[in-house]
Amino acid sequence: MSFQEVIMHLQREQVEPWSDALLENGALAVSAEDADADSLDEQAIYGEPGTTPEVNAWARTKIVVLIAEGDDPQQLLGAVALELDQPVPVVQMREVADADWVRLTQAQYEPIPVGQRLLITPSWREDGNQPERLRIIVDPGLAFGTGSHPTTHLCLQWLEEHILGGESVIDYGCGSGILAIAAKRLGAGPAVGIDIDPQALIASRSNAEINQVNLLVQSTTDPLPSSAPIVVANILASPLKLLAPLLISLVAPGGRLALSGVLERQINEVCDSYKSHGMMMQAYAVRDGWACLAGVKA
């Protein structure tokens, strides 16, 4: 069995009506991505947990439509165009052979070495065990953080350099729990993961169990833990600025704070926000346009 794939480029306002209509008229699946990805015109779209992004599509969006073998793509597109009273977009078509999609998807996730000591790997990789490295098992799932994104990678690298052994750690906005789990594997003492997203709490608890580490996972609505000598927060610039007083309060005197999820062009504004609350931050490292900031509490 094979499938047909139709690729088209739409303007932002066309994406939702075309996607809905294609599915209603028999398309098996519709996916959307930035048509300008990996170019200077690439556009980031973010939504915080519990909020709605300001825009729900890119200015130029690439739509990929999966159609069953035997169905007529032109007939489908014509029906949708008629329904929406719009011309049929210029499209590309290709045949997609059936495959073991689970195996092919899993093959995309390879072990990721970080620094000198860490190795992030999905559970199904047989080559994901290197005796000279500390293996952290994280499967792609509901919460952010598999070690592949520069923001996570930079935080892991920072933790490897600053965990001396026995320190308590707070991971605010823990996502998959990867940072707190890595800290434990590096020799940290008590570790707490905090997140606003219920799915992140589930993922963090599950990943902690898989990695056989003791991790306290709690919601942002729970009482805050005692201050810790190591605090990390891998979120985004806007919430990091809003959370500055809280995050600083979580750092013990003489303790260290690392912030990630900051674009390189946002370094100064985030540092200024923390400076206004009495803590000096500076860029620890930059990778692929993303920065990790770090500072020591007086």
Please provide the ordered H/E string of secondary-structure elements. Answer: EHEEHEHEEEHEHEHEEHHEHEE
Global morphology: elongated
Helical stretch tally: 9
> In terms of per-residue confidence, which ranges show pLDDT below 50 for 5 or more consecutive residues?
none
Q: Please tell me the overall pLDDT.
A: 86
Task: Summarize the SSE layout with pairings.
Blueprint: E1 2-11, H1 12-24, E2 29-34, E3 60-68, H2 73-84, E4 91-97, H3 101-107, E5 112-114, E6 118-121, E7 134-137, H4 150-162, E8 169-172, H5 178-185, E9 191-195, H6 198-210, E10 216-219, E11 228-234, H7 237-242, H8 244-250, E12 251-263, H9 267-275, E13 282-287, E14 290-296
Parallel strand pairs: 6-7, 8-9, 8-11, 9-10, 11-12
Antiparallel strand pairs: 1-3, 1-4, 2-3, 5-6, 12-14, 13-14
Helix pairs in contact: 1-2, 4-5
Task: Walk me through this protein's architecture.
The protein is of the alpha/beta class. The protein contains 9 helices and 14 strands. The strands form 3 sheets. Strands 10-9-8-11-12-14-13 form a 7-stranded mixed β-sheet, sandwiched between helices. α1 packs across α2 (73-84). The longest helix has 13 residues, at 12-24. It is elongated and about 65 Å long. The chain starts with a strand and ends with a strand. The model has no long low-confidence stretch (mean pLDDT 86).
Short description:
With 298 residues, the chain is of the alpha/beta class.
